[in-house]
Amino acid sequence: MSSVVVVDHPVAGNCLRILRDKRTETEAFRKEMKRLGLLLAIEATRDIECVPEPVVTPLEIEINCPRLRDGRILLVPILRAGLGFVDSFLDILPAAKVAHIGVARDHDTLQAVTYLDTVPDRCADFDRVFVVDPMLATGNSSVKTLEMIVAKGYKPEQITLVCALAVEQGIAQVHKKFPAIKIITAVIDPGLNDKAYIVPGLGDAGDRLNLI
């Protein structure tokens, strides 16, 4: 897998159309974010490890089939917006564990400030880590999150960052510090405005997911 994968799929494009539209209300926004998250989750899990397990078919034939070891997968949404992808991943990885990292952006300095970290220290219990956050803008929040995870013993090679939208600036920021991190996204937008919002983007994903 390349270090950056763009999920170029008609359904993903349609999801983005609805998510970008300022007229899309909260309920529909959540629905499309989950749908897009499912497509991203399928791509992100393409190379996860399986173990063979024999099953007997209705024709009384035994055959080895791949069995997901999803109990050894850790899902880390960056709060708040990352919660929009959690159900998407759990739909295909029902035994995955979920930890949370809360990161707020200082709107004056654009620096990331953390306020929550529930990532377990038991890194030996997990084969893969999926960090999910719809927006990879400056990359400050993602880098801060990755630093916290790696500091607990997780290897960058284990970690995949999954986002709906990214810009080259954010991708470069992540790979400058963690070149081995895989990034899965639905689109790479042209850049950021003077407030560090992705343009054309979809606005503030956390607000649109959570505000009534």
TrEMBL record:
Keyword field contains Lipid metabolism: no
Q: Main EC class of this protein?
A: transferase
Instruction: Give one GO biological process term.
Output: uracil salvage
Asked whether the keyword Glycosyltransferase is assigned, the reply is yes
Q: Which InterPro entries match?
A: PRTase-like, PRTase_dom, UPRT, UPRTase/APRTase
Q: Which GO terms describe its molecular function?
A: GTP binding; uracil phosphoribosyltransferase activity
Where is each Phosphoribosyltransferase domain found? 6-209
What protein family does this chain belong to?
Belongs to the UPRTase family.
Keyword terms of this UniProt record? Allosteric enzyme, Glycosyltransferase, GTP-binding, Nucleotide-binding, Transferase
Named cofactor requirement(s): Mg(2+)
Q: What is this protein called?
A: Uracil phosphoribosyltransferase
Q: Which PANTHER family match?
A: ADENINE PHOSPHORIBOSYLTRANSFERASE (PTHR32315), URACIL PHOSPHORIBOSYLTRANSFERASE, CHLOROPLASTIC (PTHR32315:SF4)
Q: Specify the pathway.
A: Pyrimidine metabolism; UMP biosynthesis via salvage pathway; UMP from uracil: step 1/1
Tell me the domain of life.
Answer: Bacteria
